[in-house]
Amino acid sequence: MKVLHTADWHIGQLFYEYDRTYEHEQFLDWLTELLCQEKIDLLLIAGDVFDISNPSAASIRLFYSFLNNATRKCPDLQIIITAGNHDSASRLEAPRPLLESSRIHIVGTIDKDDNGNINYDKVTIPITDKANNTVGWCLAVPYLRIGDYPAAERDHKAAPRENTYSAGVASFYKEAHRHIADKKTAGQYIIALGHLHVAHAEITDMDSAERAIMGGIECVSASAFHPDLCYIGLGHIHKAQQIGGKEHIRYAGSPIPLSFSELKYKHQIVYFELDAAGIRNLKPVEVPITVPLLSVPQKHAPLPDVIKALTALPPAGEPSDTPRSPYLEIRILLDEPRPGLRHQIEQALEGKNIRLAKIDVRYPSKTTEGDGHLEGPGDNLDALTPRDVFNRIYEQQFQTAPPKNLIGLFNQAVSEAAQTEVK
Question: What pairs with residue 359 in β-bridges?
Fold first, then answer.
């Protein structure tokens, strides 16, 4: 059985207010052709199909058009989809009864009975061959929220502040595997899907910004997955990678770059083959990038150098601001804020086939005593005046003291506010 594993499509994403429908259309067309050319039997999609929980009608239409085209051109194809943290779990699985007749299985929510017992049958999907014989099983686990998992068994030797989320997720996979193992017969294999952050996974800046993993509370150990699972297909982290040196535990990664921090990644999906002996021929399949991301310059530089680099960009070979135009991030080093900065940059980009997406401004670090610390009042909030707060915020953002004219305007604003309060 030939299998493809993918995740984190984020259909409907606005990239700094630019619509990415064209890129998703190109990816889904390419994926459909690959499914047909390679005669793929099973497609696994491990969450974050959409970028937001309430996607636009155009995004929904794009997704279901893909499902229709893929199953029409590849009638023997089976598709298993789980919801991610960006998806609306109930919305994604709403058409489930209709789609299952087309060998499309969607799992979004975790169902429980009146006594709080989890319905593990819902996440237990039989994998069938062309003759409709069950050859394996998929443990299709969506993104688990608090309350979706069973109460973890308490280890009395563990530290008092154990990670209850991690333990709960591990308990869910343990119970689900036990349930699915009772159905399994000789010669059948078990694979699993998950949308979660596994410990030791390399994350991007975007991963950090989206999911502040405070104290590792969302971090789940790879030991949560039973050793009998022959493949674990993961989503949630956008960098394609294997976990803990284990080839069969993998993040597929995002098929298109979703932030400039993913600029140098090889965006891919994962191909492998399955039989009673396990997996073989596992390999990444690189996804063609239809719209490149550019960072100019490669490192933050003073404004004159940046303007020179922008002016040196080749002129447009076609009308600018087309769906194929590259996205541009500009990296600038400034001594102080410049109000007319964007206008100056836009002038330098006139006649270039570029879409300006991001201006990343950095300020050189300045210290008062050369020890790396800025002077200021103590950390007692009661002792801080509005001026102290203003100075700290400005220094934190720009690594320098606020200029005198700005201090004067701030003092004026404070004075006017105080007079208004008295009135």
Answer: 330
